[in-house]
């Protein structure tokens, strides 16, 4: 069964939340975590995913929530 438009939007929202939480957990304020990930790039990707989600949500609102 293929993914619907709304399924992809929900998947993007969940992915964005996971990326944002991960970037915060890797923050220097929590200290002691030595992970070889670039926090800035992770945060930029998370914000980009959030913006794509908001774009899809805006399109969905423009077309109407009642449409399949």
How many separate domains make up the residues? 1
Rg over alpha carbons = 15 Å
Oligomer: single chain
Mean pLDDT: 77
Count of helical regions: 2
- What is the rounded distance between the termini? 15 Å
**Which structural category fits the helices and strands?**
mainly alpha
What is the number of beta strands? Answer: 0
Major sheet? none
Percent of residues in beta strands = under 5%
Poorly predicted regions are none
Which outline best applies? elongated
H and E order: HH
What is the helix content? 55-70%
Description:
The chain has 68 residues and is mainly α. The protein has one domain. Helix content is 68%, strand content 0%. It contains two helices and no strands. Helix 1 packs antiparallel against helix 2. It is elongated and about 45 Å long. The protein starts with a helix and ends in a 5-residue tail after the last helix.
Condensed summary:
With 68 residues, this protein is mainly alpha-helical. Helices cover 68% and strands 0% of the residues. Helix 1 (5-25) packs antiparallel against helix 2 (39-63).
Secondary-structure blueprint:
Elements: H1 5-25, H2 39-63
Features:
68 residues; 68% helix
């Amino acid at each position: 069964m293929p993914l619907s438009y709304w399924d992809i939007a929900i998947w993007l929202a969940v992915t964005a939340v996971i990326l944002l939480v991960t970037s915060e957990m890797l923050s220097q304020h929590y200290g002691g975590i030595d992970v070889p990930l670039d926090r800035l790039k992770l945060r930029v990707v998370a914000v980009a995913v959030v913006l794509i989600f908001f774009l899809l949500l805006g399109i969905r609102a423009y077309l109407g929530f009642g449409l399949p």
